[in-house]
Amino acid sequence: MPASNDILPCIAGIGLRAPHYREVLETLPELGWVEVHNENFFGGGAPLHTLLKVREHYPVSLHGVGMGLASTAPLNEAHLSALCSLCHEVQPAAVSEHLCWNAAGGFVVNDLLPFPYTLEALDHVARRVTQVQERLQRQLLVENLSSYLSFSHSEMTEGEFLAELTRRTGCGILFDVENLYVNVRNLGVDAEAFIKTIPAEAVKEYHLAGYSMREGCLVDTHDRSVFPEVWNLFETVLKHIGPRPTLIEWDSDIPALAVLMGEAEKAQHRIEHCHV
Questions:
Q1: What secondary structure letter does DSSP report for 268?
Q2: CATH tag, 12-273
Q3: Cys-Cys crosslink for 248: which of 45, 193, 221, 263, Cβ 3.0 to 4.6 Å?
Q4: pLDDT (tens digit, 9 = 90+) per residue, 174-211?
């Protein structure tokens, strides 16, 4: 069983992006914790130096977008080594990655792609999660995916897949509430069934974000504030699973830092007033 990452404070934090590095370090606002994308710091240099300065003041969570846990290509050794080095430097409070694939036939796709939830896929992903955790010597949090199609030959739901993955590997779950809402609207996923299926004790972190509407489809763009429907779903999740460290994600059309902190305050209010 990998070491758990129960170090993040059970409060709201923000995704820290480059436009806010200087302001955060100069003003040291009251942030519960921050999350950054791993790949932005693999090159070391000034970005890593900045992150280490941030780490002196706030807990840091490392969030990956490029590992491709469900890809059939072997895990990228350079990527995994860079992540190990980054963890050694930063000593993050948590490390997470998406439940998706992104490479095949020697080609890498800059996207988070879905796959069928089959027993074969479960065996494959479980081996890879175990490999990553053994290299990192720490627990990996695996994030549920926003998707725009489902596979007719899936043998289980995403929630069932995640539940069994945590049982086999000891990994944790990064529960992205907005991703679940996107799947409810796009694919007709049963939100209540998903919430009840995943083991509450495995959920270590929540994500909240805004989506866009394109041709009648919700798209996980992280480019605006959290919608009321997602806040409502978050409140339902809190009642069933309980408070966890909660992140506001905003990755494009990034607003002023004060706007992000305002969203985090809304999340914090719900965390403090939830009744499990």
A1: H
A2: 3.20.20.150
A3: 263
A4: 999 999 999 999 999 999 999 999 999 999 999 999 99
